[in-house]
Design goal:
The protein is α+β, with helices and mostly antiparallel strands. It has helices at about 1-5, 15-30, 105-110, 190-220, 225-255, 260-285, 300-320, 335-355, 360-390, 395-420, 425-430, 555, 565-575, 580-610, 615-645, 650-655, 670-685, 700-715, 720-730, 740-755, 760-765, and strands at about 35-40, 50-60, 65-75, 85-90, 115, 130-140, 145-150, 170-175, 455-460, 470-475, 485-490, 505-510, 510-515, 525-530, 540-545. The chain has four domains: about 30-175, Jelly Rolls (Sandwich); about 190-430, Rhopdopsin 7-helix transmembrane proteins (Up-down Bundle), CATH 1.20.1070; about 455-550, Jelly Rolls (Sandwich), CATH 2.60.120; about 580-765, no CATH class. The strands form four sheets. The protein has a four-stranded antiparallel beta sheet. Strands 2-7-4-5 form a four-stranded antiparallel beta sheet, with no helix packed on it.
Length: about 775
Amino acid sequence: MAATMHRLIMSARTQRSLLVGVLVMRFMCVECKVQAGTLTFGGAAAEEQEQWRFLGKFGYAIGTGRYEIRLRLHNILHEDQVLPRPDLEIFLDEDWPKQGRFSACKRAEDVPARKTHGMLVPGQHGEWGPWEVGMLYQTIRPHIWYFALSDCPDQLARGMPGDRSFSYTVDYEIRWRQFDDSELGLEMRYMPTATVLVLLMLSAMACWFVARSRALRQSLGRLHPVVRGLLFAVGLHWASQALHLVHLLTYKKNGQGLPMADGLAEVLFMLSQVASASLLIAIAQGYTLIRSKLSEVELLVPVVTVITLLHVALVAMGKLQAEDFKYHENEGLVGWILLTARLSLFAWFRSGIQRLRSAGGIKLQNFLQIFEIAGSAYFLAFPTIFVLVQVLAPYLQHPILQTTLLAVQTASWLWLADLFLKRGSYFEVSELSASILPGVKSLKPKGDFDYVIPKTQAFSFRTASHPPTFLLGIQPQQPHPSAQWQVSLHPLGKSPLPGSSASQLSHGWGSRYQVVTEKREEPAWEGSVNLKSKYAEEARIDIFVVDSRIAHLEDIHSQKQCSFEGSWQNFSERGQGRHHRVLSFTASATGFFLMVQLLLAGVVLRRFFLFVDTGKLLSRVIVFKFFVQDFPQQMCIAAYLYAWYAENGLRCQMCLFHPSHCDDQHPLHSTNLLVCLFTLLSAVANQLLLQARLKPGYDSEDECVLCFFRFVMLSVSILPFSTAMCMLSAIMLHLKSPLIYFMLGVPTVLGWGAITCVPLFICCDDEL
């Protein structure tokens, strides 16, 4: 990436540091206006692009701004070598987009450069050269100025005889200041004030949130998980703004800030947005409305996990983007990927709302009307803002985008807090209103409506299984699918044995399925159910009992990952086939990957037979295949292995009805192992694109560095599979050896570190 951005020709002496140094510079100095780095120029005989290097940019407000620059030469010059003295070329934002159309050494003349600070003097023998100062004037409107170093051959015509054929490396340090000596560029000038205001508002909201949560808990006797989730998400947002404020305050003092704090703040802010979107989607899919458990919401957990990892990866990509055409954190490809992700989440949100409309009553319809408008505004806010800022002046894009996103996110927290913590329309239609009432009968009105605590309803049944083994299902019906209940169950005329599954039934809310086993041969049973929620209208709870007549119980219990009770309970809780749909989706995705593979193979073969030179087609095909096929296919394989072979998974559930599925089959049997092996080999095909060119001066340490980076790239390529195997090795593969964890953990840690922890490698490099 760094070599693409700068096209540096690196000397053997600086190879180790520069290999990650440019990544450091791009990650750490996106906003650093005291900027430092290392550049290599090719000499008089080199190509023009090797004699021109972009340094950075700075947004100046109206007035007289200034810049300061100094250089330090790495090379030790011979007697016949002349001291290189590059020029500093400065371009205006109005002219900068044209520079790519001209050759490097013609840009100052043809673009043109609005100012050239000529013949900079670098220091030698480890010493810095003198600070060279210049002024820039803005009288009509603010401008962003772009700075580049040039060492083109026309300097030989300036009376500089001597050998200029050698390449050389220089360290540079450049400072930018506003007319009032502020280190903040124009795009960041008002961000400290905006961040302080948001932080104060979030702090006040957090205090109100905690007070309301305590009052709600005292009133209902419990605090619903959705309220705790909202508190956690607000905490992420508060922490992100606190870290960003620390970075900005430090930045105002030294011009560099705290890059680690800034990067972590961006990640936390993105995670808070994901948390807000996840809450909206979960409610739209029926959580707390018609479903009492988050696990019952179809595909929510895996999709949110993927979306979270995607957003974290996009933050890292945004930090690594080249600065020359970057005006805000979500510039370019990163922004368009975020826009696509938000629109996809919006479509998922709308589909859930439409399904809820067909299943709810009048109160639910009224709530959904307001909820859909507010949720749609949140999901469409970023796509709308991102598209609109494209037409604004470059120096306005960052402050408008950032402040608008902060305002939208803060407003969403206020709305969600008001939604969850007040007894409004959402409280009336959701299970947040479920509370355990006093155990006395009452026919008097309390609050705003009349309610009646119903009498305990008794039921009885007989079983034929030996020993008694049956499934008890409790299903509250519409319009109160999340009603709270209390159930007791015991053999007729006797109390259940202590510790038995029958004694574990007490109270809960929503649908629940429990496998009950009893060591005593008791065919007759009796139980009772009592409604604990208060409703203005009649509520209905269905109780059903399914007796077990399975003859191959021993085959089920012989499986390491199968238990009769857990498998039957999981099968009942997934009565709508959600577990099976995961496998169906995996099968469809596998067919899609096969078509992609055949199509790409056909394209490569066509070029091979019709043309002598394939050009860069193979490289492009490998890159395309990695992102479209290899990476998502590893996720599908991991999902298939977990859904089918997990503890009490679908294979165990099928074993309840078909003894042929009860064989002790290892998840990585020969067929699955070959599928995994060939998928991983396909994923690491990108190693063909990396051709190490070791120069004669490279030592064994340089070779080790290159091999390490190859292994890091391999770890990133197989990251989904290695992560899944590392997390599932104990519960699915039943492998608990430290050696297994080490072999799986090393590529997993390196892969995640390469994606999300690049600054850690940078801070540990002493040569930077």
